[in-house]
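Researcher: We're teaching a course module on how sequence relates to structure. For the next exercise, students receive a sequence and then see the predicted structure as tokens, so they can try to spot secondary structure elements on their own. Here is the exercise chain.
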Amino acid sequence: MMEYRKSLKAILMQEATDLKTESAKETYAYANQSYIDHLKAIQEAVSEAERLRWLMVGAEARIEVWRSLESSARMEIKGAQ
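Model: And here is the predicted structure for the students to work with:
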């Protein structure tokens, strides 16, 4: 998605044949609705990736707590024998 952002900008800049300066072409590309839509899609993808990453961190923490509790339970059983 990040690399396509650069390609989309270049395509949009090429479309701006009536504009003379590179700065004006770049402004046209950044203001184009398709570029803005792509940026919103990137934002949503990054947000979802972060949400999933934190869900994974939480799941790993729960697993570690469970492992610790199970280890303690095994030690109690050994101590009672």
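Model: If you want an answer key for the exercise: Residues 2-80 form one domain. The CA atoms of residues 16 and 25 lie 6 Å apart.
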